Amino acid sequence: MSKDSDVTITLSEAQVADVVREAGSGRGGAPAMLAGATDLRELKAAVLRLLSLDDASYSRVLLRAILTLAAFPSDGSARSLRDVAADAGLSPTTAHRIVTTWVAVGELEQEPRSRRYRRPTARRPPRGARPR
Fold first, then answer.
1. Residue spans per domain, the chain
2. Tens digits of per-residue pLDDT, 74-114?
3. Which of 10, 82, 102, 128 is most exposed, with minimal Cβ within 10 Å?
4. How far is it, in rounded angstroms, from Cα 12 to Cα 7?
């Protein structure tokens, strides 16, 4: 096989959920990464600086997703989507897509009554994950 060959792998939703879960299992997932920052304001400033560089080598989507997750307090208190969007400097539509993705992989949850979002107090498997 030459070095220039492309390889394509097709995964089911459950397999993607497994990969996401396994990728975060040894390190505590994305919230652990954010908790490692001494100050979430510093993290937000660093992410905003990278976004302002307009450098194609950085994933703007990933940086926005980090900003969105950083908008949620680690104490589990709930926030409205509008407040999260304002904190992250995103439109409500973009914030909704990102928050929905974080919910799908188990990093956020939505309160059924208030429809507000928060970091889960107990770790749950992502939607579509197969029981072990």
1. 13-118
2. 788 999 999 999 988 899 999 999 999 999 999 999 998 99
3. 10
4. 17
